Amino acid sequence: MVQHILVAHDLTPEADRALQRGAQLARQSGARLSLLHVLDERDNGADEVAARSLLQNRLQHNGLGDQQPWLRRGNPVEEVLTQARGLEADLLVLGRHHRDSTQGFAGTTLERILLATPAPLLLAIAPAETPYSQALAALDFSPCATRALQCAWRLLPAGAELHALNVDEVAEVHGPDESGLALQQELFDQLLEDIQAWLPDSGVRLSYSLYQGERSNCLEAAIGELQPQLLALGGHSRGELSSALLGSLTRQFLDQPPCDVLVAR
Question: What is the reported pTM?
Answer without folding.
Answer: 0.91
